[in-house]
Design goal:
The mean pLDDT is 94. Helices cover 34% and strands 16% of the residues. The strands form four sheets. It has a five-stranded parallel beta sheet with strand order 3-2-1-4-16, with helices on both faces. Strands 6-14-7-8-9 form a five-stranded parallel beta sheet. Strands 10, 11, 12 and 13 form a four-stranded antiparallel beta sheet that branches. The protein binds flavin-adenine dinucleotide (FAD) and iron/sulfur cluster (2 copies).
């Protein structure tokens, strides 16, 4: 082991510096500055090179973290990048937006006595450096197989599969209803976590490798699913989950109560320079408004921080559990608090007040009860605990379910499970329709980018194995 490793004993953890709060509040640029090369190398050298690296075990991609940390510490950045890219299609994206505190870094063994190695920031640094140095080359196949795959959805799951299949030699066509690739990376996740050009440069890179993109094409509307199956030897569905969970109660239909993704898409499109009438009319713009966001996940965190940047008069996040029991990343809660967001823990909406448009949220205090069957503490309302929060804009961020895909695709035989997500054989990634595979959120339910990448890569391997046997979608399906 290089002597320069194991530096955690005397070198404290250092994340890349954050921009000043006042500066952050005023734009949508990423809040973390870049690591300087020397700092990245020093931080990588804190790793103790564990024999059983729990960081890798808890990374959904099982990234070879200790080895690329060691290469980084030795200044061998090109090799570090190659190793990182071998297991991760988009290391610079995961380095930015994985909830590392729950995955790799949260399981780093030095976390117990010293703060963890800054794995995500180093992964981002290595890959950004590789782009700057021109080490990132399109992954073209050595030989063409003359066989064709259609992928529905250009989110991280679909793109990871497209890359893996293209490099094996398949003709790959990716269809997406949006006009840009990236799925939630481009229209869901705001620029202060992941700047848009980071996502868009991957589009260029994948197109240069020979992947054909058909953007603005919605399967089931612009192109029949049956036609798609007729065109390709195999099809992968990676359409994500987009049906927002709704909230009931008196006044829930008032104007000014909007779904989170409508709000975030409008903001992201505005930032990309698109015409967004619902934003320009003020309907989806938080400027000058008292904003209440309901929910405690990543989507809620992105909404509160977007509202701050749009110039909201005040931003409150209403969540029925407490800080320790929220699903969102604690790092993002901290960032939101720094930026002026007020968290109203253990509170749930009871009614929405207002004439035509919402003017306040009536809420109840909650307390945590006994654990339910899943082991999670249940929540119950505290009697006579009602209170009112003034609000001009209420954003509902309660999670997402799958759309009715058999209906949308005009394919009633496509099997779903009881949550409405696609049912697959988890060994083959195939749905009940021969040659139709599925991956990402449409199988798992709302999850994480890193899991979508993992599923996309695994599905590509299984699709390859299936087509290697000479199989293709049966003619009867055409
Ligand atoms: P998606 O990214 O949803 O992509 C699906 C694509 O399919 C979309 O482009 C869609 O347009 C397309 N599509 C759907 N139906 C059709 C059709 N009929 N025809 C053609 N195209 C279609 N995860 C993290 O790891 N870190 C985070 O910080 C994080 N923040 C998030 C913030 C928000 C606001 C949201 C909503 C999610 C966040 N997530 C985060 C979760 C993460 O974005 C998803 O788990 C991930 O994007 C799922 O990837 P996917 O490829 O399965 O689907
Ligand atoms: Fe950590 Fe995510 Fe990178 Fe894995 S992909 S090492 S979980 S930041
Ligand atoms: Fe290094 Fe931490 Fe991983 Fe151990 S768990 S190999 S110290 S990053």
């Amino acid at each position: 082991m290089a002597e320069r490793m194991l530096q955690f004993v005397h070198l404290p953890q250092q994340q890349p510096p954050k921009r000043e709060v006042a500066e952050r509040q005023a734009d949508f640029a990423e809040i973390y500055r870049d690591f300087a090369t020397t700092e990245a190398e020093r931080q990588a050298a804190r790793c103790s090179q564990c024999g059983v690296p729990f960081c890798s075990v808890h990374c959904p991609l099982n990234n070879n973290i200790p080895d690329w940390l060691k290469l980084t510490a030795e200044g061998r950045l090109e090799e570090a990048y190659e190793l990182a890219a071998a297991t991760n299609t988009f290391p610079e994206i995961c380095g930015r937006i994985c909830p590392q505190d729950r995955l790799c870094e949260g399981n780093c063994v030095i976390e117990k006595t010293h703060e963890s190695v800054t794995i995500g920031a180093v992964e981002r640094f290595i890959t950004d450096t590789a782009f700057d140095q021109g080490w990132v080359k399109p992954r073209r196949p050595r030989r063409e197989l003359g066989r064709s795959v259609g992928i529905v959805g250009a989110g991280p799951g679909g793109l990871a599969a497209a890359d893996a299949l293209r490099v094996l030699g398949y003709d790959v066509d990716v269809y997406d209803r949006h006009d840009r690739v990236g799925g939630l990376l481009i229209y869901g996740i705001p620029g202060f976590k992941l700047e848009k050009d980071i996502v868009l440069r991957r589009h260029d890179w994948l197109a240069e490798a020979g992947i054909r993109f058909h953007l603005g094409v919605e399967i089931g509307r612009d192109l029949a699913f049956a036609e798609l199956r007729a065109r390709h030897d195999a099809v992968l569905i990676a359409t994500g989950v987009y049906r927002p969970r709704d909230i009931g109660g008196p006044g829930a239909g008032l104007a000014g109560i909007v779904p989170a993704l409508d709000y975030l898409i409008a903001s992201n499109r505005k930032g990309l320079g698109d015409a967004v009438p619902a934003f320009d009319s003020g309907e989806l713009d938080a400027a000058g408004k008292r904003v209440v966001v309901i929910g405690g996940g990543d989507t809620a965190m992105d909404c509160v921080r977007t509202a701050v940047r749009q110039g909201a008069a005040s931003v409150k996040c209403l969540y029925r559990r407490d800080r320790a029991n929220m699903p969102g990343s604690l790092r993002e809660v901290k960032n939101a608090e720094e930026e002026g967001v007020e968290f109203v823990w253990l509170s749930a909406p009871e009614a929405f007040l207002g004439d035509d448009s919402v003017s306040a949220v009536r809420a109840l205090r909650m307390r945590l009860g006994l654990p339910d069957a899943s082991g999670r503490q249940s929540v119950e309302a505290v009697e006579d605990s009602g209170f009112t929060l003034p609000a001009d804009l209420v954003i509902k961020a309660l999670g997402f379910d799958a759309e009715d895909l058999p209906l949308a695709f005009g394919e009633p035989a496509l099997a779903v499970n009881r949550w409405g997500t696609l049912a697959i054989d988890h060994r083959s990634f195939m749905t009940n329709l021969p040659g139709v595979f599925a991956a990402g959120d449409i199988v798992r339910g709302a999850s994480l980018v890193v899991w979508a990448i993992r599923d996309g890569r695994d599905a590509a391997v299984r699709m390859h194995a299936w087509m290697q046997q000479g199989a293709r979608i049966p003619a009867a399906a055409e």
